[in-house]
Amino acid sequence: MTAMRRLPIVAMTVVALLAALAGTASATNDPYFSRQWALSQIGAPEAWTKSTGSGITIGIVDTGVDLGHPDLAGKIAATADCVNHTCVAGGGQDTHGHGTMVSGIAAANTGNSKGVASVAPGARLVVAKVLNSSGEGRVEDINNGIRWVVDNGARVVNLSLGDPNFLVSSVLGTPLRNGIEYAWSKGAVPVLASGNYATGVGDLGTGNYGTVNTLVVGATDRAGNVPSYSSPMGNAKWGLVAPGGAGSGGADSNVVSTYPVASGGTGYASASGTSMAAPHVSAAVALLLAQGLGPAAAVARILATADKSVACGRGCQGRLNVAAAVGADPAPPTTVASPVTTRDPSAPRTTVRRPTTTVAPVVTSTTTTVPPRSVQSAEPPEQAAPVPMPVDGAPPGRSAAVVVTAVVLVVLMGGAVGAVGLRAAARP
Q1: Annotated active-site positions, please?
Q2: pLDDT tens for residues 112-123?
């Protein structure tokens, strides 16, 4: 049996609850909205004038979700616990944090005067808990979780997981291939974090995606560039980058999202990693499906409208531009062909490495690390520490007490997911 872990979160900052979140297409009254540079980078506020993802369900296959989080109230259509057994409907409480962060980026309530805004505020979620409180889980559980969310209405499947054994997965491919192909065959679009295992030596640290039908997502920082931890897409059929954070620095350098209230007290945190990048793309796909596009057309539109001016390496077709994708902004040139695969991905595995940071160890999310057993994880742990953010409208830049929560998730053969206080097992 192969084991995997969630991808480690590169950096995480616990955020205190700010003010109210509001709700118009171009701006909201959400307290943390002004700090969500990621939404502006991809043109989300503009995109909301055309689509909010209403009527679409996004599947989150991760560490579960905080079932009582106020910013996710009414958004969770169904949950299941798939850890160490076949999926059982119900439960799925997130005791790690990673899955709650991923869920908030994709579809947190927006304009409700609470916490954060999301990319697809009109979408709903079905969540399969496939990783335990340490961010570890078996490949078979993850594949079962993918099938469960798809069979329960998911039209997009977010996999913020990665395989830490990238040398193996670079040859054999992702161990989640069966689940991914099941989703695609049923009309759902799989979205997989590339991992946090970049080595800086060509494509070393890259998974062998071959012809796998999944959008593979790397990360960008606040400046719109690819951070050093983000694994390249290599031979991915459909690759692009999206906001994932710097992997170091303070809360404003990374991605702010929901976090289990019981774990951090505030209910919000800032983290980085390809695990954070993937849900931006999953939600963007949901906006397009809500406009009536089919799976293949939605994928083609995402890639065709990506910002081609961003240098993101082989296999990458640009940076996500959801405003252009939904028709809210003029689309950039769209003459980029999908990369051709040169390797055969028959024995899939994915590896993601954790980025190095100069801040206290923070959790990185977006890739899964898989040890040679039966456990997979979301992402390898981030190397930046959680730092509290200003509250009650304090201006960006003001610091609050620093709260450090280490999170390490390792998924042997899947994507990666990282979150504060949780263990990530996916790596770029």
Answers
A1: 62, 98, 275
A2: 999 999 999 999
